[in-house]
TrEMBL record:
The lineage of its organism: Bacteria, Bacillati, Bacillota, Bacilli, Lactobacillales. The keyword NAD does not apply. GO terms for biological process: amino acid metabolic process. CDD domains: AAT_like (cd00609). SUPFAM superfamilies: PLP-dependent transferases. This is Aminotransferase. Belongs to the class-I pyridoxal-phosphate-dependent aminotransferase family. Its EC number is 2.6.1.-. It comes from Fructilactobacillus florum 8D.
Amino acid sequence: MPNLDPNLTEVFNQHLTQIKPSQIRSFSKEIKDIPGLISLNVGEPGFNTPEHIKKAAMASIAENKSHYSPQNGWLELRQTISDFLQQRLHLTYDPEQEVIVTDGATEALSSTFLATVNPGDQVLVPQPAYPAYGAMIELAGASVIPLDTSPNQFKIDPQTLDEQLTAYPEVKEIILNYPNNPTGVEYTATELEALAAVIQRHHLLVIADEIYSELTYSLPHTSIANIIPNSTILINGVSKSHAMTGYRLGYVAGPAAVVANINKVHGYLVTSPSNPAQYAAIEALQHGRHDTEPMLVEYQQRRDLVTETLRPLGFEIINPDGAFYIFAKIPSCYHESSREFCLRLAQEAHVGVTPGSAFGTSGEGYFRISYAANLAQIKQALTNIKHFVAEMATPKSV
């Protein structure tokens, strides 16, 4: 087994020294071998990909559609994405110049940051936030300016946003993720209009990660691209909406001038997207518009079950309006960090959740639970948590 030449110890990208491995993945790895663990810590839909979508992927292989697609994806898929966004979100994008098919939303985000920031730039990231945002921004040489949303029930307050941008006038971009991971928070059109006014006043580019846009409950999703299309790069995909996380199929949509540069980066990173995934996505977006509806019904039932069980146990929860996560506040009586609490919950109750600290400093004191798992697992996990809380509340005999 070769060891690195000692003369090559400085070979690594210097930005990597500032970046920690994903705490979501590392914590999952740490607890995965606990016997009987019920894993509710990964954002993985608890459904199989619909059969008609799987058949489309297999048909593309059988029909020898095995050669490189255009760098930005097959035009048929880009047209399908354009039609989908028009019909679903009332957005208009030219499939020739304003849409790129990517290897998942994560690659879409990576390509976008690499194409739009320079070393020394600043990007505002509302927190708690999906940890990959910060890592991708720092790999591109820029720095993260956090914005704590916890005082406003995990929603960005326009006045606070304005104050933060005034304090950091060099901020170039803002990442907006909603429905939000990890909180499940969704924004109304009125709330987005107020945020858009501040964003325009400070001349920011918006990176809108709307990967959970099809998973909303009490209100329809509004894209900020409806309000400020000329300042917004929209990131989306089929991973969450159609239970296709392993297909790695996402997309970017936005003004042609920016999309052209994102496409340059995208091409050098991946050459072109996978053909079977593209043909599966065509099927999903053309004929699977209603595939998400039965999933939504079940997700909402699971959400309600989790909130109705955890609240009486002392966990404060802001009711999520989208995605499939609950961000629960750990009662102060536990006197331990979110990581310590979640580790003990895994070891003693055999329930795997994600420490809130994985999503930034404003997530400390919380944990994220994914209710995308199957109902039987969720019920057993909640029973285990009940026993865990009861045991913690029982005075220990000396």
